[in-house]
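Section 5: illustrative case.
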């Protein structure tokens, strides 16, 4: 059997690796420039075709993947006059790999179904590194027939594929997953700041947590920024994290649940955005929590501050209020 032709909208940090893996594993691939030309040009050099509009892309594709920043972006490329729906044929599958609002996903599914087009969600786990390696996690919300059709395609870029339920369920579980991850970031930001505030080298916390039951991938990524200053420790931006937390809180509140930790994490990320950190990777949240408390980040300052406290002098952590970040 021939492999289905793929259209891909949103070949950015995550999408480029996904698209490249499908192309290299034998799928005809059509792409379009959404914001950044560089990954599009790279894929075209590798053999992909570039479309002039989402409609043009859909006419060339049996399966259309979207991997965009937000639900409004997804709705726009699908529903606008020259959008995917205008070019899709009955039987076309639209698979949204964005972190989207499930309510929006269900609305799109109803609109597309009226034209015989199938909507599903292929939410993602892990980072651009795994996207390039073809070892992402995929949480798929689709009917069984559509899942069977999609699974071998997703297997070109995912090592772990979980069919979590019907359309919208992939996005639902992704939002819960991301809430856990972002709550971890907030927790670790405070924990590493606490170490510095009491005069401990953050490496010591890593040495304690690493062999125990509290260790996890997110702790390691935050540690790589705090201890090694690795700028690629985790590339997801504060703005995207804040958007996902907003979707999560709205989703659970619509279900009648009170979100306590979700709103606490959202507030901290909102503070980071209001202090000009929106486009920074989310491990940099550690700097916000440290600045809020006047805690130095540099190890030499940390050692000097610790010596001062031992001698009964106020440390540099007692920064005047005017120097601290403003609250959102």
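Designed sequence:
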């Amino acid at each position: 059997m021939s492999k289905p032709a793929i259209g891909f909208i949103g070949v950015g940090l995550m999408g480029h690796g996904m698209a490249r893996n499908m192309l290299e594993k034998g799928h005809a691939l059509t792409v379009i420039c959404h914001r950044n030309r560089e990954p599009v040009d790279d894929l075209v050099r590798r053999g992909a075709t570039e479309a002039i509009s989402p409609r043009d892309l859909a006419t060339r594709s049996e399966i259309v993947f979207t991997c965009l920043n937000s639900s409004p972006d997804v709705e726009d490329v699908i529903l606008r006059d020259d959008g995917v729906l205008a070019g899709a044929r009955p039987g076309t599958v639209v698979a949204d790999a964005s972190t989207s609002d499930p309510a929006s996903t269900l609305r799109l599914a109803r609109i597309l179904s009226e034209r015989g087009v199938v909507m599903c969600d292929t939410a993602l786990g892990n980072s651009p590194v795994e996207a390039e390696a073809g070892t992402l996690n995929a949480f798929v919300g689709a009917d069984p027939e559509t899942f069977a059709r999609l699974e071998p395609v997703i297997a070109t870029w995912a090592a772990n594929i979980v069919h979590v339920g019907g359309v919208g369920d992939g996005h639902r579980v992704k939002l819960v997953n991301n809430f856990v991850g972002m709550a971890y970031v907030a927790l670790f930001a405070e924990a590493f700041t606490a170490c510095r505030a009491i005069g401990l080298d953050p490496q010591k916390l890593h040495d304690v947590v690493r062999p125990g039951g509290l260790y996890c991938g997110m702790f390691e990524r935050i540690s790589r920024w705090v201890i090694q200053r690795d700028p690629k420790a985790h590339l997801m931006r504060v703005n995207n994290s804040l958007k996902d937390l907003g979707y999560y809180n709205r989703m659970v509140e619509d279900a009648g649940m009170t979100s306590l930790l979700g709103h606490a994490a959202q507030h901290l990320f909102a503070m980071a955005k209001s202090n000009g950190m929106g486009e920074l990777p989310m491990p940099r949240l550690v700097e916000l929590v440290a600045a809020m408390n006047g805690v130095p980040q540099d190890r030499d300052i940390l050692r000097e501050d610790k010596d001062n406290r031992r001698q009964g002098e106020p440390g540099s952590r007692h920064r005047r209020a005017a120097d601290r970040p403003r609250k959102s």
